[in-house]
Design a protein that fits this description.
The chain has ten helices and six strands; from the N terminus they run E-H-E-H-E-H-E-H-E-H-E-H-H-H-H-H. A six-stranded parallel sheet has the order 2-1-3-4-5-6, with helices on both faces. 38% of the residues are buried. InterPro entries: CheY-like_superfamily (IPR011006), NreC/VraR/RcsB-like_REC (IPR058245), Sig_transdc_resp-reg_C-effctor (IPR016032), Sig_transdc_resp-reg_receiver (IPR001789), Tscrpt_reg_LuxR_C (IPR000792), WalR-like (IPR039420). This is Response regulator transcription factor.
Length: 216
């Protein structure tokens, strides 16, 4: 079971999230939080796998809560950020704070379920409604010098990183490199560990920020 904490300052929204997630056989909503501060406290106490939280909440907003959870909860649960606002500052604020996914509230319920499952597997998911916007934003970034950690990657790991940044799945990368899907998973895990990244979403951000792969 994927133990999940739901955080939103609106009771109807929390009820709707619980209804969607508890209907799945592999997901259990173990508790709710009414603001960011309570979400952090309960994430510490409940040993949850995933936190689904709204980005606009009183006392502590979602971006600050994501950052606090990543820094102070051990082991830190994956976080799926949820908002009604399709705005760059929320998307990038949430991802840079450590979120594993970003879903708009008006998206199909199935997408939220998929995001929770992906987060529990250490993967990331950005709502397709904002993916195009994210790529445009990446394209406008001024590349930063590649950090020394990049030198730790083998040529094959660097190749895998580039494929991930292009949006390829593990199966697609395996076909492109003529290796097994399990081998690709191993390479992805090593890249994440060597670069100090948490999810595939952050691998994409890293690749574009450091001009490892120019957007096309």
């Amino acid at each position: 079971m994927i133990r999940t904490l739901v955080a939103d300052d609106q009771e109807p929204a929390r009820w709707a999230l619980r209804l969607v997630l508890d209907a799945e056989p592999d997901i259990e909503v173990v508790d709710e939080a009414v603001d960011g501060a309570e979400a952090v406290d309960k994430a510490r106490l409940l040993c949850v796998d995933v936190v689904v939280l709204d980005l606009r909440m009183p006392r502590m907003d979602g971006v600050a809560a994501i950052r606090r959870i990543a820094e102070s909860v051990n082991p830190a649960p994956a976080v799926v950020a949820l908002t009604t606002f399709d705005v760059d500052e929320y998307l990038f604020g949430a991802l840079q704070a450590g979120a594993a996914g970003f879903v708009l509230k008006d998206s199909e319920p199935a997408l939220l379920v998929e995001a929770v499952r992906a987060a529990s597997r250490g993967q990331g998911l950005i709502d397709p409604q904002v993916t195009r916007r994210a790529i445009r934003r990446f394209a406008q970034m001024v590349p930063r010098p590649a950090p020394t950690g990049l030198n730790l990657l083998t040529p094959r790991e660097l190749e895998v990183l580039r494929h991930v940044a292009r949006g390829l799945s593990n199966a697609e990368i395996a076909r492109a490199l003529t290796v097994s899907e399990g081998t690709v998973k191993t390479h992805v895990a090593r890249v994440l560990a060597k670069l100090g990244l948490r999810t595939r979403v952050h691998m994409v951000i890293y690749a574009y920020e450091h001009a490892i792969l120019s957007p096309s």
